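Task: sequence design from structure.
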């Protein structure tokens, strides 16, 4: 007498409760690079305040130091976070603060300071565009995850 074998149904794998692998999400590697950029810029603003003041035309050294600490904190957040989009949006807000400070130089500085502030504003505008584009990409990818 032959035995008949009945296939047993296979069960789907149990759901994983570990966090998703975000390493390959679009924009994550660029976010990490922007994190290192933030730390480098922040260190320059904290430890080379006079040089940054001369280059940008911003005379308020205390403000530059505070902006540097903000940059360092944001950079560390970008490097440590599994989900860097909120930290990128924080960079965008910080870029707005930088633009406001540079705008005051444009309205009250001498010709040389205004020229330096204008060049700095163009640089900040470029970085702001990169920050916002990367943050938008990561935010959209997060929405697709559910």
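Answer:
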């Amino acid at each position: 007498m032959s035995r008949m074998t009945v296939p047993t149904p296979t069960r789907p794998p149990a759901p994983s409760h570990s966090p998703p692998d975000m390493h390959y999400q679009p924009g994550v590697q660029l976010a990490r690079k922007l994190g290192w950029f933030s730390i480098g810029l922040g260190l320059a603003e904290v430890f080379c305040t006079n040089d940054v003041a001369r280059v940008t035309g911003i005379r308020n050294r205390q403000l530059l130091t505070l902006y540097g600490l903000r940059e360092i904190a944001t950079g560390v957040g970008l490097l440590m976070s599994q989900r860097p989009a909120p930290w990128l949006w924080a960079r965008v807000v910080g870029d707005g603060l930088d633009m406001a400070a540079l705008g005051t130089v444009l309205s009250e500085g001498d010709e040389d300071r205004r020229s330096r502030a204008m060049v700095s504003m163009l640089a900040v505008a470029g970085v702001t565009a990169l920050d916002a584009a990367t943050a938008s990409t990561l935010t959209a990818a997060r929405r697709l995850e559910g």
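The mean pLDDT is 89.
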